[in-house]
Specification:
The protein has about 300 residues and is mostly beta strands. Helices cover about 15% and strands about 45% of the residues. Pfam families: Arylesterase.
Length: about 300
């Protein structure tokens, strides 16, 4: 009898796991095929072989760098010894160097993936997991607990401003500073939030794009979003034999009723593996990856 009960329990467990497994595969967009799409003229960037996750084109005041009274500050996410800090630097124009000002730590900044600066020491940050422990992190991911969140940080106030994400990833603001864009990796969505004077956020809309969305760059002139994507998360999260693929989408008119989503780049991993970010400048697009090369394309 006990054995039968045990077996039933075992069976139930298996069924549950099977359910999770298929949901998991759907969340990872496993086995999606991509047809190659490429702008006419693309070249690999020389000298970059082991990752180029972070790309920024830097006019005054864009994302990582905020210009306040002609002082340019740089905020960088750092993970020393599995911990999580944000490093603040000041740009020194004469010496063309960066001066390290301080290391920011806070218990609400526990698993930071991306940040967007809104002041010299003020930023929004995505925490891609709730847990810090790698083992618990992997269960959190597998079970799809959606406990990832977004935090507002300033020297005198730190608060969670949005939560319930299934892996909050890239974050950015609109050129006019009124809206915050958040990429939710495993629901394949870009969320648009209204930003209030008290720094809280209200969800305005969500756009589903059928690909795992990583970092978001915002064109400072047009306001278009350029998103580095993973067509198939299975290859990026699990070391399957075949290479992770790459994809870049451009989203125009995201605030209107009819946003336009264009696949600008797609490739099976032969040229570029695991694209995370794309940024455009003067008719050129740079694409960066987690641990591999970078590509420069004419648009
Ligand atoms: C891009 O995404 C990766 C992985 O999600 C993250 O580590 C990195 O900080 C992001 N880079 C930028 C420029 O947002
Ligand atoms: C810039 O302004 C901030 C806030 O008003 C102030 O704290 C800071 O010292 C100023 N920096 C410079 C270089 O003037
Ligand atoms: C922040 O501002 C929004 C919009 O004005 C308001 O709805 C909300 O109650 C405010 N929250 C706090 C904590 O003051
Ligand atoms: C990837 O695409 C290239 C060019 O279309 C093709 O030659 C190659 O066989 C493909 N590789 C895989 C692993 O699908």
């Amino acid at each position: 009898m006990a054995k039968a009960a045990l077996l039933t329990l075992f069976g139930l467990g298996l069924t549950l796991l099977k359910d999770y497994q298929s949901t998991y595969e759907a969340r990872l967009n496993a086995f999606r095929e991509v047809e190659p799409v490429q702008p006419p003229n693309c070249k690999l960037v020389k000298g970059i072989e082991t990752g180029s996750e972070d790309l920024e084109i830097l006019p005054n005041g864009l994302t990582f760098i905020s210009a306040v009274n002609n002082t340019v500050y740089l905020l960088v996410v750092n993970h020393p010894n599995m911990q999580c800090t944000v490093e603040l630097f000041k740009f020194q124009p004469e010496e063309k160097s960066l001066l390290h000002l301080k290391t920011i730590r806070h218990k609400l900044l526990h698993s930071v993936n991306d940040i967007v600066a809104v002041g010299p020491e003020h930023f929004y940050a995505t925490n891609d997991h709730y847990f810090v422990d790698p083992y618990l992190k992997s269960w959190e991911l597998y079970l799809g607990l959606a406990w990832s969140n977004v935090v507002y940080y300033s020297p005198n106030e730190v608060q969670v401003v949005a939560d319930g994400f299934d892996f909050a990833n890239g974050i950015n603001v609109s050129p006019d500073g009124k809206y915050v864009y958040i990429a939710e990796l495993l629901t394949h969505k870009i969320h648009v939030y209204e930003k209030h004077p008290n720094w809280t956020l209200t969800l305005l809309k969500s756009l589903a794009v059928n690909t795992l969305v990583d970092n978001i760059s915002v064109d400072p002139v047009t306001g278009d979003l350029w998103v580095g994507c993973h067509p198939d998360g299975m290859k990026i999260f699990h070391n399957l034999k075949s290479a992770p693929r790459s994809e870049v989408i451009q989203i125009q008119n995201i605030l209107t009723e009819e946003p336009k989503v264009t696949q600008v780049y797609a490739e099976n991993g032969t040229v570029l593996q695991g694209s995370t970010v794309a940024a455009v400048y003067k008719g050129k697009m740079l694409i960066g990856t987690v641990y591999q090369k970078a590509l420069c394309c004419e648009l």
